[in-house]
Amino acid sequence: MKPIMTMKTISGRELPNYIDGYGLVKPFQGAFNDGGIKTRSSVELTCVPPGDLKVLESLEEALDKLNMNDGMTISFHHHLRNGDHVLNMVVEALAKRGLKDLTIAASSIFPVHAPLVEHMKSGVVTGIVANYMSGPVPEAISRGELKKPAIMQTHGGRARAIESGDLHIDVAFIAAPTSDTYGNINGVYGKSACGTLGYAVSDAEYAAKTIVITDNLVPFPACPIEISQIFVDYVVRVESIGDPKGIVSGTTKITNNPVALIIAKMAAEVIKASGLVRDGMSFQTGAGGTSLAVAAELKRIMKHEGAIGSFASGGITGYLTEMLEEGLFRTLFDVQCFDLAAIESYRNNPRHQFMSASMYGNPHTKGAVVNNLDIMILGATEIDTDFNVNVTTGSDGVIIGGSGGHSDTAAGAKLAIVVTNLMKARLPMIKAKVTTITTPGESIDVVVTERGIAVNPRRVDLMEKLSQAKLPLRTIGELKTLAEQITGVPKALETSEKIVAVVEYRDGSVIDVVRMVIDNGYLER
Amino acid sequence: MKKFRRTMLFMPGNNPGMLQDAAILGADSIILDLEDAVSLSEKDSARILVRNALKYLDYSQVEVVVRVNPLDTEFGPQDVDMIARVKPDTLLIPKAHEEDIKLVDMMLDKIETEEGYGVGSIKIIALIETAIGLETIHEVIKASRRTVGVLLGGEDLTSDLGIMRTKEGEEIFYARNKVATACRALRVDSIDTPFTDTNDYEGLIKDTAKAKSLGLTGKAVINPRQVEIIHSVFAPTEAELKHALRILGAMEEMKKEGKGVFSLDGKMIDAPVINRAKTTVELGQRLGFMER
After folding, report:
1. Which class in CATH covers the domain with range B7-234?
2. Chain A interface, best mutation among B10, B24, B198, by max A CB count within 10 A
3. What pTM was estimated for this model as a whole?
4. Class of the CATH domain delimited by A57-246
5. Which terminus of chain A has fewer CB atoms gathered within 10 Å of its CB, N or C?
6. What are the pLDDT digits (tens) for A80-101?
């Protein structure tokens, strides 16, 4: 079906009102345009009477019981990250059974999921819904090898889509580092321990069928319980759900890169000047070397000012658990553990608290944790002069990431700071228009680069504070010019009309689409 | 306003990425190195790279110093000829002796005339790293009016002396004294040898404090992470600034009463104490710690 008409998002992106394989398009109209009264989806379930057993001896036995059909949507969480065995195991088994036209709703896709590419080519998999993708799968999607456009969501947006019924899951396959015989699971024990299971909660609660897959079956009841038996139909025991080496890193380290350290120091100065360093403050940052360096700088400032924070949130690293132990934060909200130290802290310290993806960032709840966030440190692959941020595609138009919690936290935080090098290799990071809008400029307050700081003109108050603190302020246009003086202006990408991915904002509206790049022979990575 | 040379950061002249970012790393001066950081097979390409960096990149926020190769090698004179034509602020002359400085001075006179720059606009810093250079330091400094400072090269000097170089640095105690005193006498900057353990920040603080206590005015840097620490050691403390301001305040009072020498907190305040207080306050003002 050809597009009937084109519409514009509030950020000026032109979208068709209908996309084949996706459906009707609701264009993005502002971060908080779609609030008000909402309804949660109802779930049909099969009651389990006393005496019934849930443990099955093999995945095949589970698939026999499930009556799976062509065209179903199956879901996975990404807590095992690049060590995950479960997604490949399940899709391979379904392919052998001759199923076609499946949609994979995985909270994230990693390089380890490369076998999906063959299943895309053979028609076993025709749809993918994910919040973040890296590796061969998004590269193949970018080349147009998935039948339907992929749907890119946010962490909060995925929970919203599942709970509202926008994303109906037929079967949720939940990898569990520990499960008891009745389906109570946790991620803190077992050889594949990954910490919290925050991204799997909505799947378990709202899928028509929920199957736990574990390599550490323990007697009933498991302790602790992160996701409870009341949502679980069957438990399947397998040899291994993942490779611990790919699940978590041993330690996450602060960068040594001098330019990144300068950026981190400036970001911390921005936080200080904003006046948000005070008792009760809250903070979130990523696990990258620069993000951790900001945390290290902030720690110094908090100690100096004697400020005790209320919470740090997000994916949690050992660095944040140290801050918790030193008394710099009262609690942590953890949706996902990034390293072994975080897992250990979550297991042992009651102040290190669990949060589901919905509690983390779902806009259609009675208030997500991002709403309480003061300071958020964000990355970017591109920023434009309207402060729109791209973390979905590279400058070559190929999908290399996705929002994850980017748009959710940016929308909620009082101060959303993007930290980035002004140039990466030979490319300027600030452009007239980003290749893909992931997070709208209205949510971004400050951009910090090694060559200066740009404040969103909407934040006049902040501009005054930073200027009083004598920080090196420039306009975003000036930063762009500065970069281009060194790198020149790169030629615009040539894209075809074909839409390979739809980028959904957290409220389910479409903020942008990714079009297939015309391959000049440079796209092989 | 006179530029600081608290930190002079070495950057390899053969690394385009580092040359691009050199100016923003916080050091007062950057030393683009054509000598030790560059292997023999890359001497020509690094020279061209540094020339182009000076031509096209914005280094206006820092002093750009280029360390050329020793003048008695085939590369040294070629370095001077190519680099001086794109007008660096300063050349750093390794293994400096009186004759080397005189030779560079003459070459620069000629190049500056040919290129239409003001004669004398390119400055010289002498790298003292041989026993003979150290013992003839007055002649080395006086060999050119372009000379604005001396950098002490501890590694090569101890090698020339045939002694061990240690972290504690007792073996260069004499050299530091000699460089600091000679430079003060001839009113040029004295830059201490770098501290080479880039992960030992406590050691760096001690080493810098020692250099400062002996009268050296700055320190060479081999890793950007050292810059801020060195600046903090060279900066006057809040207590020092307050004390200096009290001395100057008391002096104004005493002037009105016509007294030359007076006492404050039971200590005699005379001209040298007042001069030191003035220097401290001036430094504090230049570093932006206090209003002018």
Report:
1. alpha beta
2. B24
3. 0.90
4. alpha beta
5. N
6. 999 999 999 999 999 999 999 9
